[in-house]
Amino acid sequence: MAYKNQYAILTKGLTKQYGQALAVNGLDLSIEPGRFYGLLGPNGAGKSTTIHMLTTMTSASSGEAWISGREVKRYPVQTRAAVGLVFQDSALDRMMTVDENLQFAAALYNLNKQQAEQRISELLSVFGLEKKRHQKLVALSGGQRRAVDIARGVLHKPQVLFLDEPTIGLDLPNRRAIWRFIEQLRKDEGMTVFLTTHYLEEAEACDHVDFIQKGQLQKGGAPKKLIKNLAAYMLEIDCADTEMVSQQMRPQFGEPLWEDQHLTYRIQDKETDFYRLQKTLGNAVNAMQWRKPNLNDVYLWTVCPPDYGVVT
Ligand SMILES: Nc1ncnc2c1ncn2[C@@H]1O[C@H](COP(=O)(O)OP(=O)(O)OP(=O)(O)O)[C@@H](O)[C@H]1O
């Protein structure tokens, strides 16, 4: 059907059940080509399972999925050709050189010698790894190895690139470098990118993020908009008697997120006089600070809002 071609990723009621456990429950997604999409959620929420179903690594228990207009279940070979995958665990052989690893992957993707040569050179140049081409993976830094992993994932110029925690374990400069490469690939090749990450500041660059918890999707939106809608300020209070302070705060500021002796409030009123509030609370508080909200706050208030239960 024509409208399915409009989307790089489309799912309807996509569900995965492992025994009694619902890993992914009735997922409806519609992601347009060229978008940078983030799926965020705690450990065990169903993020990897979603990627596995969309890339033919596991079959769905029910529901349907289309990649670039083709039904995943009916066209597994074409689906695999249309997607690139970069997982937390490297798909590379550390005892082989960069070139050997990429040539091996190119053969799996059925690239001929000339295509492989051209694509490998092109990608190593984007990643600044030309000089490492004939070095073994073990001799590369963690960031360089991850860059080779990404090069491997996009060798065949996929339409959709799935990145499952692509920067996990990397330090900040390496994480930034990886994101520069991914941005470059998006710009040059117009790929749709589907990201899962625990580093939420990285997801602020997404066009759209959704949240998933216990297999259930909670619709999100554009990160900037979500942040703006969350609050004008976040107010954090450290205090010994949280019951007493929260009781005092409740009429004006509602319920906080509660973590041991740390309370976090959403403040909607831009004109709030925090210095006056500090005076009113007096000795009841040990420390108090207010700041602009970020995506991490949106995530916490979506996944663990105060009426949901205690933040763990
Ligand atoms: N092969 C499997 N057999 C049984 N249960 C599984 C299997 N794979 C995943 N699960 C369960 O499905 C649920 C979702 O797991 P999944 O790996 O998709 O979560 P995740 O959001 O990717 O977590 P993380 O952030 O830790 O990678 C979890 O409860 C997990 O234990």
In short:
Pfam families: ABC_tran. It contains eleven helices and 14 strands. With 312 residues, the protein is α/β, with parallel strands linked by helices.
CATH architecture of the largest domain: 3-Layer(aba) Sandwich
Listed once per kind, the bound small molecules are: adenosine-5'-triphosphate
Name of the CATH superfamily of the largest domain: P-loop containing nucleotide triphosphate hydrolases
Order of helices and strands: EEEHEEHEHHHEHEHEEHEHEEHEH
Terminal CA distance: 45 Å
| Average pLDDT taken over every residue | 91
Oligomer: single chain
Structural class: alpha/beta
User: Which residues form runs of ≥5 with pLDDT under 50?
Assistant: 308-312
The count of helical stretches stands at 11
Net shape: globular
Number of strands: 14
Would you write up a description of this structure?
The protein folds into two domains: 2-226, Rossmann fold (3-Layer(aba) Sandwich); 232-292, Alpha-Beta Plaits (2-Layer Sandwich), CATH 3.30.70. Helices cover 36% and strands 27% of the residues. The chain contains eleven helices and 14 strands. It has helices at 47-54, 76-82, 98-108, 113-126, 142-154, 172-189, 200-203, 223-230, 242-253, 274-281, 295-303; strands spanning 9-18, 21-31, 36-40, 62-67, 70-71, 83-86, 160-164, 192-196, 208-213, 216-221, 233-239, 257-259, 262-267, 285-291. The strands form three sheets. The protein has a six-stranded mixed β-sheet with strand order 6-7-8-3-9-10, with helices on both faces. A four-stranded antiparallel β-sheet has the order 2-1-4-5, covered by helices on one side. Helix 3 crosses helix 4 (113-126) and helix 5 runs parallel beside helix 6. Bound molecules: adenosine-5'-triphosphate. Adenosine-5'-triphosphate (ATP) binds next to strand 2 and helix 1. It comes from Methylophaga sulfidovorans. Keywords: ATP-binding, Nodulation, Nucleotide-binding, Transport. This is ABC-2 type transport system ATP-binding protein. Belongs to the ABC transporter superfamily.
